[in-house]
Amino acid sequence: MRRFLRDNGLSLCFLVIFLLSLVGQSIAGWFDENEQLSEHAQAAVSYPDYVTSSSFLVDVAENWQSEFLQFFLFILATVWLTQRGSPESKKPGRGGTGTEQEQKVGPHARYDSPRWSALGGVRQWTYANSLLIVMGAIFALSWLAQSVGGMAALNEQNAEHGQAAVTWLEYLGSPDFWNRTLQNWQSEFLAVGAMVTLSIYLRQQGSSQSKPVGSAHAATAEESS
Amino acid sequence: MTDKSHPRLGARAVRAERIAIRVSDRGRLVLFWIWLVLIFGGLAVMIVLPLAGR
């Protein structure tokens, strides 16, 4: 058990703090919703009703989509683009998907390589891009969830104000959809850009996300280890 | 590292180490699937409930 905790501390820690944050968000959101309902002299909603409501789900989905877009773009961009001095980057001039030997695929696969890395053809291509494919799929589905949740929440408000319901396509062109989308995207791109750039000159001793403290500012991760 | 002066004790320690590695490997795969089920399960809920009129 001790070995399991030591080997998986990072994913376990984030699993726990994710679940705690989600529960915290649902409780705070429930109180907020009921405060607003009370201001409008409307009946309060129960906790189960709130956590299955479109207004809660759209708030969750809009954050999920931007996080997964961030990772999707970062994984894709770091195949081709480089940043001298960043521990997140390959060496400048080494952009691209790499040789079969570097990637340990096909005839260069080792005895302990994942099976699909040695098979060639569609299976090898799929496995070689599996992280990007899954991150992209999660982003697309989260964005879809945000759009249907946002549409349902907006239509609920429209019904209360005696206004006509919008269709899904109309909602995709609405200010509400793009305001929710872009306010999340800008913060993700800011954080990634800041991480790439600040880590050129700043260090965190002991972190895998930083270069060793004594590494040159111009060194990338490949050059500083 | 096995203890050559106590071969039976050493063999037991090696066996325990192998079991611990196997449990950790299995646990890592279980964690991977927990994350995937959590994410895709959450997405299914977030897509289906609003469409069902919640």
Explain what this protein looks like in three dimensions.
The complex is a heterodimer of chains A (about 220) and B (about 55). Chain A is an all-alpha fold and about 220 residues long. The longest helix of chain A has about 30 residues. Chain A has 2 domains: about 50 residues; about 170 residues, no CATH class. Chain A has 10 helices and no strands. Helices cover about 65% and strands about 0% of the residues of chain A. Chain B is mostly helical and about 55 residues long. Chain B has one domain. Chain B contains 1 helix and no strands. The radius of gyration of chain B is 22 Å and the shape is rod-shaped. Chain B starts with 6 loop residues before the first helix and ends with a helix. The mean pLDDT of chain B is about 85.
What is the topological layout?
The complex is a heterodimer of chains A (225) and B (54).
Chain A: H1 2-7, H2 9-39, H3 47-51, H4 54-80, H5 100-103, H6 121-128, H7 130-160, H8 168-172, H9 175-201, H10 221-224
Helix pairs in contact in A: 4-7, 4-9
Chain B: H1 7-51
Taking all Cα atoms into account, the compactness measure Rg of chain A is: 23 Å
Integer average pLDDT of chain A: 94
Order of helices and strands of chain A: HHHHHHHHHH
Average pLDDT confidence of chain B is 85
C-alpha Rg of chain B (nearest Å): 22 Å
Number of domains of chain A: 2
Largest sheet of chain A: none
- How far apart, in Å, are the first and last alpha carbons of chain A? 31 Å
* Count of discrete alpha- or pi-helical segments spanning 4 or more residues of chain A: 10
How many strand elements of chain A?
0
Largest sheet of chain B: none
| Unreliable residue stretches of chain B | none
Oligomer: heterodimer
Q: Which consecutive residue ranges of chain A, at least 5 long each, have pLDDT under 50? A: none
* Helix content estimate of chain A: 55-70%
